[in-house]
Every structure is written in structure tokens, then in C-alpha cells.
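User: Please fill in residues for this 266-position structure.
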């Protein structure tokens, strides 16, 4: 979709103009299995520029723990961004930091009440608006690795997703936004944040993260174990969730280990 790719490129260039941030190579596809996999398996393995891939529909998208995330044409944002990786490690708090960038982008469209539900959900109240999935491919001495950030946001017709949980979309929130316009703001925010997150982690974003953290000071339940406690916030060093459990002990939960939900009493 050369015309859409060119239009999206122009919009991102305008948003990044004067920032000194590297402009990504941009492509818009009619349909793809997974935007994350498309970028992880891109044929030009030596390319040093960041890349962004937007799909009008996604047939085999994945969320956390391998959950499927299908997107109908024009009804969802299915976007991934990729950066080459040297042998340096990705800071463990990077996925949470990527979430702050998506919230920032949505706030530019007047959505002031989107929050992050640790580790990777975008929430409005108790309903899911979208999610983030960060993956990486290790490199070698001759071929750089890749870091890929996948972002999904519900635009409309959320009832078709059948996620078995409360969900919401931008249309229901009164936001009528062009898909390319939304994608351009999300891409620009992620590109601005990438070098900050790689060098500093969440250190400079701590006040913003505290504002966006949906679970902070809330009673929660760890679904895997049934353990209950109160969330104390996201650790800016590790990206882990700090929880004071019913036994009085404070522990940290690592992304990928557990899911959490609000519970009525602790």
C-alpha cells in the first residue's frame, strides 16, 4: 500500500521534525499475520534504521502469553516498531516505558483517562482499550538483533474481539480519529522515547508513570496463585510491580509471571 505508506511517512516526519530523532522506515500493509513477526523476520537483517509496520488487518496477532489478537480491517490499530540491537541488553523496564509512550499519544487526542495496567494493558476504567507486546531477537557477531514493540488499540466494533473481559474502543469514547493520524502519533512518541528508555530506563519517567499506573494503591489478586495484596506501584528500575501481600511481606512481581486484577477486599 504505497500511497498509505507515503502518507504515514509524511505525517511522522512532521511530528519528528526538529527533534533529532531518527526517522523510521515505514510500511503500511493490507494484511499480515503478525506485525511483530513481520519485523522480527524482515529479510534485510543488517538494516540499521528503525522500522514501523502498520497493518490494516492482522490475522495471527498475539498478545501476552500467546493470546490471539485478530484485527478487522480499519477497526483496530495493529502497529509494530523495530530497532536494531547491539549486544547491549534491553532494560527490563522497557516494556512498561513503551506503554507510557502510547498513553502520551492517546492524550494528544484528548483522552486524559487512559491508564496502564501492569504489565502491558491500556485501560479506561476496567475496560481494555489496547495492549503492548515487546519482543526481541538476539543478534550475532555478524547480524544485529532486533527489538520489536507491538501495539494494538481498539478503534471501533470492539464487540467482535470476544476477549472474555470488558473491552472498549475509541469510537465508544467519542474519539473519531483517522487510522494513519493515530499511527503517526504513536510512532513519533515511541521514536522519541526509545533512546531514553535504552539509556535511562524509567528513571526520568517516574512521576509520569505514577500518574498512569492504574493499579497503584489498589487491592489486587495474583491470578496464578490466588494471593492477595495491595499494589505499591511499578518499580522504575526493573519494571516490576511491587505488592504488599496479606502476610505483610512486600514482594515484586515480574512481567510474564502473573496476571493481576482488582479485588474488592484485602
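Assistant: Residues filled in for all 266 positions:
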Amino acid at each position: 500500500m504505497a500511497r498509505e505508506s507515503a502518507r504515514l511517512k509524511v505525517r511522522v516526519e512532521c511530528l519528528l521534525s526538529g527533534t533529532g530523532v531518527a526517522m523510521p522506515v515505514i510500511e503500511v500493509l493490507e494484511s499480515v499475520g503478525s506485525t511483530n513477526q513481520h519485523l522480527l523476520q524482515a529479510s534485510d537483517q543488517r538494516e540499521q534504521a528503525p522500522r514501523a509496520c502498520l497493518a490494516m488487518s492482522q490475522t495471527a496477532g498475539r498478545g501476552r502469553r500467546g493470546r490471539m489478537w485478530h484485527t478487522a480491517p480499519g477497526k483496530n490499530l495493529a502497529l509494530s516498531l523495530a530497532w536494531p540491537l547491539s549486544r547491549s541488553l534491553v532494560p527490563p523496564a522497557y516494556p512498561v516505558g513503551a506503554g507510557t509512550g502510547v498513553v502520551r499519544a492517546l492524550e494528544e487526542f484528548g483522552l486524559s483517562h487512559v491508564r496502564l495496567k501492569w504489565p502491558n494493558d491500556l485501560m479506561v476504567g476496567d475496560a481494555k482499550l489496547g495492549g503492548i507486546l515487546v519482543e526481541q531477537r538476539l543478534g550475532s557477531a555478524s547480524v544485529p538483533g532486533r527489538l520489536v514493540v507491538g501495539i494494538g488499540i481498539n478503534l471501533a466494533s470492539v464487540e467482535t474481539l470476544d476477549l472474555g473481559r470488558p473491552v472498549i474502543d475509541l469510537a465508544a469514547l467519542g474519539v473519531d480519529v483517522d487510522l494513519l493520524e493515530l499511527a503517526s502519533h504513536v510512532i513519533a512518541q515511541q521514536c522519541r522515547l526509545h533512546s531514553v528508555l535504552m539509556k535511562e530506563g524509567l528513571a526520568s519517567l517516574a512521576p509520569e508513570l505514577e500518574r498512569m499506573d492504574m493499579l497503584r494503591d489498589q487491592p489486587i489478586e495474583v491470578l496464578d496463585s490466588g494471593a492477595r495484596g495491595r499494589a505499591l506501584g511499578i518499580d522504575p528500575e526493573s519494571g516490576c510491580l511491587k505488592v504488599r501481600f496479606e502476610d505483610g511481606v512486600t514482594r515484586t512481581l515480574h512481567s510474564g509471571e502473573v496476571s493481576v486484577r482488582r479485588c474488592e477486599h484485602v
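For context: The helical segments are 2-16, 35-40, 94-107, 179-200, 206-212.
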